[in-house]
Each structure stands twice: as structure tokens, then as C-alpha cells.
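Hey, quick one: can you model this chain's 3D structure?
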Amino acid sequence: MKKQKNYNLIIGAAITGIMILLIAMGMFYTPYEPNEIDAAAKLAPPSLSHFLGTDNMGRDIFSRILDGAGTTLFIAVCVVAVGAVLGVIMGALTGYYGGLLDEILMRVNDIIAAFPSVLLALVFIAILGSGKMNVIIALGILFIPGFARLTRGEFVRCKSQEYVKSAKLMGASGSRIMLVHILPNTFPVLFSSIAIGFNNAVLAEASMSYLGIGVQPPDASLGRMLSESQSYIFSAPWYALSTGITIALLILGFILLGEGLKKRSGGNA
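Sure thing. Here's the predicted structure for all 269 residues.
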């Protein structure tokens, strides 16, 4: 039987790859300085000199999108890293050892997961203050429960397998069994969850910046740019459209990539 192509994975990887290449290019080159103000070119439509037009302060939108997308992606990577590392550690310990440790850590996990994520993020930002690092900390904490729950389930499933029992009989330590024997077998599920986590992190960062509690001016952020552009939706529609499409493409790429990886891991199971 001919193997069906995984179009979600192919299209998701293509979109994500193109977006990452553009963002990487923006780290070294942008047509204009992202924060360069040109009052004479205020709200200029797309042209050869300004590929996506200019914003309400005469700044080149394409340059700011490259810079803002880089900021958004950097925050998303850090958020997922914090959530994944701490979540995997918590899930591995509770899934493998169980008992009182499982009860305590999972109750903490449930408490965090019980609150609406946006509301809890607002509380953290109100306490810590706005800015990149505080957004990373606040959102990173919110991502821990999902990864912890997923990892715990995989460790509970794997620890009853024959290869784990054989490792115990051969005298392998608990830490070695977790790191060498069980953790690698959770990677297919974790990779798909990480891709979906990037999607959620991009959306969360954009939402917080849109509300004015994320990345602060003059730094560019896709969410803040979208918020600023709504006042000019009719007079300068290119401002909102270009920013909104960029956010949509980033999210779509990660969604399709995550779904494709999930399908692939399910097919290989």
C-alpha cells in the first residue's frame, strides 16, 4: 500500500522555514532602520521604496515586521524552552516515582492549569512589570502544566515496558533509566507538542503586546504593531493587513507543523 504523503508536515515546514529565513535575514539586514522616523513618508502606501508601505510615524513596515517577528519568535522560543524543560522534569519525576511526589507536584500543576491563562499572565505581569524577560517568565510558567501532564503520561506508560524492567534487573539507576531508556521514547510526542507550543506562544505574546503589557516601545512587536494599526484600518489598510498576515502565517506554519509531527509519530507508533 502506497504511503500517504503528510501534507501538513510538508506545508507547515515550508511556511515555518520561509518565515524563519526572513526573520534570520532581518537580524543582519533590513531595508531601513526599524525605528527610523520619516514624517514626510507618514502612512505612505506600498511602493518600490517601501515594499509594505509605512506606518503612522513614517517607519518602514517591512523592516519593522522583520524586526518585530524576530522579537516575537525569540520570546516564543524562550517561553517554550522554559515550559518544556521544567514541565518535562516535573512530568518525568512524577510519572516515574509516583507516590507523594506525584501528588504534590501534580496538585501544583493543576492549580496553575485551573486559572485562565491570559488572566494569570496579566497577574504575573502586574507583579513583575512589563518587558521581554517578564513576559518570558510569565508565559513560561503557564506552559509548564501542559508539558508536565504529557510527559507524566508517557513515563507512566513506558515504565511498565519490558525494556525498562530489564534495565532495572541489570542494576541501572533511576536517573539512567529516565534519561537513557524512557526519555528518548517520549521525543516523538514531545516534538509535536513543542511545535504546537510555539504556535500558542506566538499567539500569547502577540496578544499581550496588543494589550500593551508585552514588548514596550520603541522595540517592534507584531502584537503592538497590530494594535497601533487598528486606528488606520480604513486610511492605511496595508498596515494592519501586512502585520496580521505575518502573525497568521507564523501561527499557521506552527499549527500545520505540529499536526504533521503528531500524525507522523502516530503513524510510526
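One thing worth noting: Residues 131 and 215 are 5 Å apart (CA to CA).
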